[in-house]
Design brief:
Blueprint (H helix, E strand, L loop, with lengths): L9 H17 L2 E2 H8 L3 H13 L3 E6 L9 E5 L5 E7 L3 E8 L4 E9 L6 H16 L8 E8 L3 E2 L4 E2 L10 H9 L3 E5 H12 L8 E6 L3 E7 L2 E2 L36 H13 L18 H9 L3 H25 L3 E5 L7 H14 L2 H4 L3 E4 L6 H14 L7
Parallel strand pairs: 4-7, 7-10, 11-14, 14-15
Antiparallel strand pairs: 1-3, 2-3, 4-5, 5-6, 8-9, 11-12, 12-13
Length: about 400
């Protein structure tokens, strides 16, 4: 690719990756600062900056005004040199986006109608939506590198297997999609990608230890430790919703009973609202009673925004339960920041306040004092921003040969 030569110099390639990763993580900077951060001489950094400029990967961003001497030049990633694609699917919608090299969203489509089912037919529809998006892009196709698809559940990004969804054969889903799209495709857990999106481009401001809680149809967490996503041994870290919590007979989609998300998730909220309306309780959603089974989580979030008492009560109940278990996470991880995201976070303070109250009640005072609890800044875009970020990060992964 861009670092290929007749004779490949592994050390030189690694230095170039380190420079690019510095710009990805820290933004524009001077040769002097790069020299300090990467522990390399100024002539060495200058040599590689010139080579990367010749390859059209970085560019000058003007001079920095200082108190004396010559003004140093700022360098950074060249936005239009490379582009990355992200796709983020939920139970009822699909979001797709393209991001430039510097991390700006160039074009995106939100809320593409897509009803997820764990079937080959649903997978084929997903692939067609992504292909249509790529085919209609106006950016040069030779500048498109990597697509990342966010999938919920147990995902192994290294092997390319999704074990919870679309696991129809031993062939990795990444290979299947790459063949169908004629494009390099990777996958990651949706919540972990959202956590990276929020970390790189959202509410996080300097914190290095962050937990992102994704309250959508299911319930998961993305963990950032010392500025890096935590994957676990096989990429399965973050299955928060499958804590064995309740002595109930509700069968979770994982095949077990009593999981946390059976009583505390978008799926649980959806079930409880439907049950209580069917039992005659009043709601602005009651007019849908004749077709109550068509009710979606999006409908419920809209009702919350209109201050529907029944929906708010259920949201607050679920928030209190989730807060109790976030308290446990805070006791274990001692994070600087806990970010609440996912579709249910649209309830905002109706969800956030009971979470905070429950955390104060159930966590250790000295520990929770360190942890701020905030709502996602990226909101519905967290998934596609994160998916694109994952695609970009993978291209310059220090373990990959490019």
């Amino acid at each position: 690719m861009f670092f290929s030569n007749k004779v490949r110099n592994t050390k030189s390639i690694q230095i170039k990756k380190n420079i690019i990763n510095f710009f990805i993580n820290d933004g524009n900077n001077t040769i002097t600062e790069l020299s300090k951060e990467l522990d390399l001489s100024i002539p060495t950094i200058t040599k590689f900056i010139n080579e990367l400029s010749d390859q059209n990967l970085i560019m000058e961003y003007g001079k920095v005004q200082t108190t004396g001497g010559r003004y140093p030049i700022m360098y950074g990633l060249k936005p239009d040199s490379l582009y990355f694609l992200g796709a983020d699917m939920s139970r009822h919608h699909l979001n797709i986006a393209i991001m430039d090299f510097k991390g700006g969203l160039v074009h995106f489509q939100m809320g593409i109608k897509y009803s997820f089912e764990n079937t080959p037919e649903s997978f084929d529809i997903l692939h067609k939506h992504i292909k249509t998006f790529i085919d209609n892009l106006e950016v040069p196709k030779e500048r498109l590198f990597n697509l990342n698809l966010n999938i919920s559940g147990r995902v192994n990004p290294e092997s390319g297997h999704s074990y919870s969804n679309f696991y129809f054969s031993e062939q990795p889903i990444t290979e299947i999609l790459s063949e169908k799209l004629n494009f390099n495709v990777g996958i990651d857990n949706d919540t972990r990608a959202m956590a990276l999106g929020e970390y790189m481009s959202g509410i996080v401001e300097g914190e290095k230890n962050v937990i992102f809680v994704n309250i959508s149809w299911g319930l998961g967490i993305g963990i950032i430790i010392d500025g890096k996503p935590y994957y676990g041994k096989s990429g399965f870290a973050g299955e928060f919703g499958h804590f064995p919590t309740f002595d109930n007979e509700i069968l979770c989609h994982c095949g077990k009973k009593g999981c946390l998300e059976t009583e505390a998730s978008g799926m649980a909220i959806h079930r409880m609202v439907k049950e209580r309306i069917k039992n005659g309780e009043s709601s602005i959603l009651s007019k849908k009673t004749k077709d109550i089974d068509s009710l979606t989580l999006t409908d419920i979030m809209e009702a919350v925004k209109k201050e529907d008492p029944l929906c708010i009560e259920i949201i607050e109940q679920v928030g209190s339960i989730i807060g109790k278990y976030i308290a446990g996470l805070i006791n274990i991880f001692n994070p600087e920041l806990v970010v609440i995201g996912g579709e249910v976070s649209q309830a905002e303070d109706f969800l956030l306040l009971p979470i905070k109250s429950s955390v104060r009640k159930h966590s250790l005072n000295l520990v929770n004092r360190d942890s701020k609890i905030v709502l996602s800044k990226l909101k519905q875009k967290a998934g596609i921003v994160g998916a694109c970020m994952v695609a970009r990060t993978r291209l310059f992964d220090n373990q990959k040969d490019i």
